[in-house]
Amino acid sequence: MYLKKLTLKGYRNYSNAEVTFSNQINVFLGENAQGKTNIMESIYVLAMTRSHRTSNDKELIGWDQDFARVAGTVEKSSGEYPLEIILSKKGKKAKLNHLEQKKLSRYIGHLNVILFAPEDLSLVKGSPSVRRKFLDMEMGQMSSIYLYHLVEYQKVLKQRNAYLKQHRKSGKLDQTYLSILNEQLAAEGAELLAQRFSFTRRLENWARPIHSDISQGKETLMLEYASSFSVTSETDKEQLMNDLLKQYKKHEQREKEQGTTLYGPHRDDIRFFVNEKNVQTYGSQGQQRTTALSLKLAEIELMNEMTGEYPVLLLDDVLSELDDERQTHLLKTIQDKVQTFLTTTSLDGVKKELLHHPRIFNVRSGQIEMESE
């Protein structure tokens, strides 16, 4: 899979831009605040229908523009097709093959991307919400079934929390209605738990040897899906659903008092262990960075395993954050395998011998100019 062409109109500081890419490595060179990260963000938006930098779509529209348009042409083993996202003050439209998709969940997954930016180094030591977002965003690209159940779970969770808050204010509660919400939430939650556990195991299978290579065989990485429920490969969805229902019943009074749902996959986490020690608590910064890098590289292989296509890799100013050894491992892993977009202020310090025939673009004040090859 690779992105052949990108067209921007009214997007952040790009009034009009059209770029044709190499299917190998594309480098965006320029000083800070010129628009390099905006390009990376636009590719992410084209894939995921949302930004990784803001939850407010209006921020993506140029200050003097009525709307923003991001369009691209994707090449896969099955053929070529156009994608398009249009953002306006009224909302957003997503088009696949020129046809508007009424549900965004039917659009996501047609361009798979993995983003690696400096803030992703906090994946390991950051808050549990960072890791839950990581799970949901990556799994949502790989599995339309997971994305469907995630959307349904979030919808019912919102209804249940609103009802619990309403009870806290009024003191009135329809137990039958709450039971219906419990059943619906437990059914969707069981699906998420089962799929997240499976994903974590598969991700570990790819990440462990990568981590071992980077650490020169000195470290062993383990991943654990951390839930308030006992989840194993033998646990079936019916058991998970029953466990969720028991938790709702057991903590009903507490949830009524607090006006929120206290248990379920929206409160879960992933734990990382290096040589059987929790790297989030006891690991050095180097171990935490190696773990984060191993996870990102493992994602590339897992996405290929699950979808039959390698994803597009976005490296937003991350090489400067990696030492020579980790940078070398990253560039060797992606070499001649994954279409890669890389932003940097300078190629000084980047191992150029590992960048095979890069297509280089100079970025300045919202203008993109390709260097002669």
UniProtKB/TrEMBL annotation:
GO terms for biological process: DNA replication; DNA synthesis involved in DNA repair; double-strand break repair; SOS response. InterPro entries: DNA-binding_RecF (IPR001238), DNA-binding_RecF_CS (IPR018078), P-loop_NTPase (IPR027417), RecF/RecN/SMC_N (IPR003395), RecF_2 (IPR042174). It comes from the Bacteria. One of its GO terms (molecular function) is single-stranded DNA binding. GO terms for cellular component: cytoplasm. The RecF protein is involved in DNA metabolism; it is required for DNA replication and normal SOS inducibility. RecF binds preferentially to single-stranded, linear DNA. It also seems to bind ATP. This is DNA replication and repair protein RecF. It comes from Alkalibacterium pelagium.
